[in-house]
Amino acid sequence: MASELHRAPIGCARAGFGLTLTATRKRNRVQAVGYLRTSSPTNVGQDKDSEKRQRLAIERYAKHAGFEIVEWFNDPAVSGADPIESRPGFSALLDRVEKNGLKVVLVEDSSRFARDLVAQELGVLMLIKLSMRVITASGDDLTDATDPSRIMMRQIAGSFAQYEKNRLVRKLREARERSGKLGGRKSLAETRPETVALVKELHAGGLSYRRIAAELAARGHLTSSGRPYMASAIQKMLGRRQGRRKPR
């Protein structure tokens, strides 16, 4: 009896030490957020296999690797080819980590982050700029900057994105210039709407381009240099490239 009483404080001390060690380990865990994505609407829901499988895999890895998941983000029925910044769930995730300084995102595997390779590498490039890490449940760091093959793919993806951006900018600029905007020559419809309206009225009355030009001159509608409009200018006002009415 005395022996049992003597051992009790030792057991209590060990239990106390165990609690202290557990608390210390929790304090030393790195905070992270979990990210889930399902492509098919039929797999959306906590009772569905996809979300449960992803969550379980991430939780197991987090416990083993020393991460504490402080919040979950989900993109249900979102394609893996969609850019990460266009996804509602991942956009909310980015807002969360930027405000609170979290730097680790845990995913089940790379396909949950992005199934399309270009979308994946462009997303990784963006997260690297934010000093963030994306780690899979198998321990693969998608933001690893030491893997030569990954670096090559990111450079290719970045070059492709830059090419697409430049192509789009050029396309928009040309379209604006054609419509008389962004430093291009403004159309007569913008500078002389009354003249254009009269041209359309006369053309609707059956007059030829030359007769319309003569009628414009008679009514005082002249070019900026004070000359009568050419038939080609009448065509442009009407938005026509070919064809003309026969003189009446």
Describe the structure.
The protein is α/β, with parallel strands linked by helices and 248 residues long. The protein folds into two domains: 28-159, 3-Layer(aba) Sandwich (Rossmann fold), CATH 3.40.50.1390; 188-237. The protein has helices spanning 2-28, 49-65, 88-100, 110-113, 117-129, 148-178, 188-191, 193-204, 209-218, 231-237, and strands at residues 30-38, 67-76, 104-107, 133-136. It has a four-stranded parallel beta sheet, with helices on both faces. Helix 9 (209-218) packs across helix 10 (231-237). It is elongated, with a radius of gyration of 34 Å. 20% of the residues are buried.
What topology emerges from the helices and strands here?
Blueprint: H1 2-28, E1 30-38, H2 49-65, E2 67-76, H3 88-100, E3 104-107, H4 110-113, H5 117-129, E4 133-136, H6 148-178, H7 188-191, H8 193-204, H9 209-218, H10 231-237
Parallel strand pairs: 1-2, 1-3, 3-4
Helix pairs in contact: 5-6, 8-9, 9-10
Q: Which structural class matches the secondary elements?
A: alpha/beta
CATH fold call of the largest domain = Rossmann fold
Number of domains: 2
Report the uncertain regions. 1-8, 19-24, 242-248
Indicate the CATH architecture of the largest domain. 3-Layer(aba) Sandwich
DSSP strand (E) fraction? 5-15%
Arithmetic mean of pLDDT: 78
Superfamily (CATH H level) name of the largest domain: Resolvase, N-terminal catalytic domain
CA radius of gyration is: 34 Å
SSE succession? HEHEHEHHEHHHHH
